[in-house]
Amino acid sequence: MVHRQPTLCAVNHVSRLTSYVSLLTLALASSSVHAARIGDLTETSITEQALRFFTFSDPSLRLALLGCILLGLNCGLLGGFVVVRRMSLVGDTLSHAVLPGIALGFLWNNTKDPLAILIGATLVGGLSMLTVSAITRTTRLKEDAAMGLVLSSFYAIGICLIGMIQRLPSGNKSGIDKFLFGQAAAMNGSDIALMAITAGITLLFVTVGYRGLLTLSFHRAFGESLGLPMGFLHHAMMLLISFAVVTAMQAVGVVLVSAMLIIPPATACLLTDRMHRVLILSAVIGIATAAFGAFLSFLGSNLPTGPFMVLAGSLVFAMAFLFSPKQGWLTRLWRQKTQKCRIERENTLKAMYHLAERHGFREEGITLLELANARREPLEQIRLQSDDLLRQKLATLTDDGSMLHFTPEGWRKACAVVRNHRLWELYLTNIMQYGADHVHDDAEKIEHVLGEDTVRQLERRLDFPQTDPHGKPIPGARDVHGQSKPRPAGTTGY
């Protein structure tokens, strides 16, 4: 992946995104929530539910949607650095390892105090990372094995503590179990305030420290050699990831929170290869998928918001995986098929050129039978290739269907392929010192990918040659650009 130096444009984009989210935050935060779930409404049709969603008339919806948007923004921005630094397992480890901290934060005063839970989860998250570091430093275990060990151990401790809490007199009403699988509509004003503060700190951190974070992500050793605080940036990012994980758990739960850190930036990486664009797209995708998950859960009664958010993100990732302009699987298949057809077409035009050259460019056309013999292919296959040339308007066929003629465009393309082939043969022979009898196969491959600029450089490097290593004339620029017509053998096109 190629990354350029960050510009002021990246900071402006992030700042603009901050403004939009802030406006939406003010619009949605105008009421408190008392409902237990987003879809806790009377029986209505899906259409009525959808209209009710977009009017934002339900108080519980406004607060839950605001929380989902803040979650998507926070996880999307931090997740961009998590993915490019290949730290995806870190997010999963933190999301499971902080569960004991959540339980301890609740036990501090037997209430679901967001600040106490955040402090407890952050401390335990830091302890989990220190444990991973200690294991990797003092044993021969790799980091992934240490993370797996810490993840499962801390998660098991958290499950045990939550079980103990639920056996307390008020344990069943504590709501602490919502951190396991998430319940967006159960968030209250304190939860939203904490999420907003965390998202704001993340935006400020990414905006101000973008250059340092970029260096940390791709050239940490170089940054350390310049005296940049790489260690501080790393630990600050780990702290913010812990905050993001804890605040996101209320909506999506321990099991799924890592997906919100990974899916949006992974999708963005399929769509662009510039870091500032990855961050912006990741934040946008995080917000959009979180909002869409809230919308889907609102359509029915008691539908889970967190899983729908992850499913929405997975759907967007699947679309990018299949149809991304550069990296999409189906897009690559289409490009490969198109390239294969183009190469087949160019090889047919080249064979027609060779036959016309063999006849001294005096014949009116090339018969299909002669072309089949030259290409050593069945006549039916040659008919299919001729039909393709007709569709592309590169050749015309006589009324009896036995002879092909170049169109002006077909002649230019044929000259270009032959020119590329013979120039590359000459380059390999004269410059690279290949034997003249060993250059044909290489030229067969390269002739279809040489661009006009490269061909011009080859011509200048070879002092505008007129014949190839085998003594055959090389079509000139006038032939390729349609400034001349088929000419007798031995003449030049310059």
Task: Write a concise keyword list for the protein shown above.
mainly alpha, ABC transporter involved in vitamin B12 uptake, BtuC, disordered C terminus, Arc Repressor Mutant, subunit A, three-stranded antiparallel sheet
Please describe what this structure looks like.
This protein has 494 residues and is an all-alpha fold. It has two domains: 8-327, ABC transporter involved in vitamin B12 uptake, BtuC; 333-494, Arc Repressor Mutant, subunit A (Orthogonal Bundle). 70% of the residues lie in helices and 2% in strands. The chain has 21 helices and three strands.
Please identify the top-level CATH class of the largest domain.
Mainly Alpha
- Gyration radius over CA: 32 Å
Largest sheet composition: 3 strands, antiparallel
Outline: elongated
Q: Strand fraction band?
A: under 5%
**What is the CATH architecture descriptor of the largest domain?**
Orthogonal Bundle
- Class computed from helices, strands and strand pairing: mainly alpha
H/I helix tally: 21
Provide the number of structural domains.
2
Q: Termini separation (Å)?
A: 41 Å
SSE order: HHHHHHHHHHHHHHHEHHEEHHHH
- The total of beta strands comes to 3
Instruction: Give the spatial strand order of the biggest sheet.
Output: 1-3-2
Q: Please give the share of residues in helix.
A: over 70%
CATH topology of the largest domain: ABC transporter involved in vitamin B12 uptake, BtuC
